[in-house]
Amino acid sequence: MYPISSQLAAFVTKTESFTSEDSSLAGLRQNYDRMCQAFTPSQPDGLQVSDAALGGVKVRCYQPATATPAQGWPCLLYMHGGGWVVGGLDSHDFICFELASALQVLVIAIDYRLAPEHPFPAAYEDCRAVWQAIQAGQGPYAINLQRLVVMGDSAGGNLAAALCLGLRDDGQPLPQAQVLIYPGLGGPADLPSRRDCMDAPLLSSADTDCYLALYLLGGGEPSAYAMPLLAEDFSGLPKALIAVAQFDPLRDDGMLYAERLQAAGVEAVLYPGKGLVHGCLRARGQAPEVDRLYDYLLSYLGSEQLTQV
């Protein structure tokens, strides 16, 4: 039904092999962690990885072994995916390794609190706390605040977009750019991708509904900081790269967000992700279409003067 390449189909099969009959929260997290571990390469040479706390939130820092640049480190603040429910620092080592090594920048990944134990706004507030701590010059690294980009995949893309909205609304300093990879942004249930990709590989429409419900358990009316597409004003936000996957129920969230940013005068680039599925970032080196996505991401981040000069 979904015409994905044989290479990507093999990746999907391997990923799905980690599912089990145990659908409890603990079981879901354990299976996800096992799957992530299977796709995590060894730590690259020339990269120093250490855990710390910023603003009272656990983070993991990925620092190239070169001397600190005179103006401080260009920095990429990374928010991991996992539906706000699964994942953590270990689950996204794979992409943080790549970003720090390829770009020679400091990457800081945020270990935000997970739902349903900690529903919205806990994860959002944790990301804000880390941002404020960086702005205040806390932590062990000299960071160039003019070369600071926020980035996330799936639920992490949601958090990166929400962080930008909240900072703009409060008149706070903004990141240079936001990079959102197949983000879930709270789009309406009647978007075409919800129907066309209802049972897409690795993420179904039912899955997205379930994760969002767990995230919003706090009750009350959802805000734009939980579902960024609810925002009424998209002006004054950082420029954006939004990469979507063709066969993903969340595809149209990203497309709609790009349209709304562009309509508000914000520079937004949409990467259409032809042939891709949700969660495909882990297929680096296994499928040419995924490698093309990485090439585009790294090129964009380099062109944003994030890389060291």
The assigned structural class equals alpha/beta
Distinct helical segment count: 9
Q: CATH homologous superfamily?
A: Alpha/Beta hydrolase fold, catalytic domain
Please state how the strands of the largest beta sheet are arranged side by side.
1-2-4-3-5-6-7-8
Just give the CATH class: Alpha Beta
Low-pLDDT segments: none
Number of strands: 8
What is the radius of gyration?
Answer: 18 Å
What gap, in angstroms, lies between the N and C termini? 46 Å
Mean pLDDT: 96
| Main sheet attributes: strand count, strand direction, barrel closure | 8 strands, mixed
Which band does the percent of strand residues land in? 15-25%
| CATH topology-level fold name | Rossmann fold
Note the overall shape: globular
Number of domains: 1
Into which percent range does the helicity of residues fall? 25-40%
The CATH architecture is: 3-Layer(aba) Sandwich
Q: What oligomeric state best describes the polypeptide chains here?
A: single chain
- State the order of secondary-structure elements, H for helix, E for strand: HHEEEHEHEHEHHEHEH
Description:
This protein is of the alpha/beta class. It has a single domain, classed as 3-Layer(aba) Sandwich (Rossmann fold), CATH 3.40.50.1820. 36% of the residues lie in helices and 17% in strands. It has helices at 6-16, 25-38, 93-103, 122-135, 155-169, 192-196, 205-215, 251-263, 288-303, and strands at residues 47-54, 57-64, 73-79, 106-110, 143-153, 177-181, 239-243, 268-271. Strand 1 (47-54) and strand 2 form a beta hairpin. It is globular and about 55 Å long. The chain starts with 5 loop residues before the first helix and ends in a 6-residue tail after the last helix. 48% of the residues are buried.
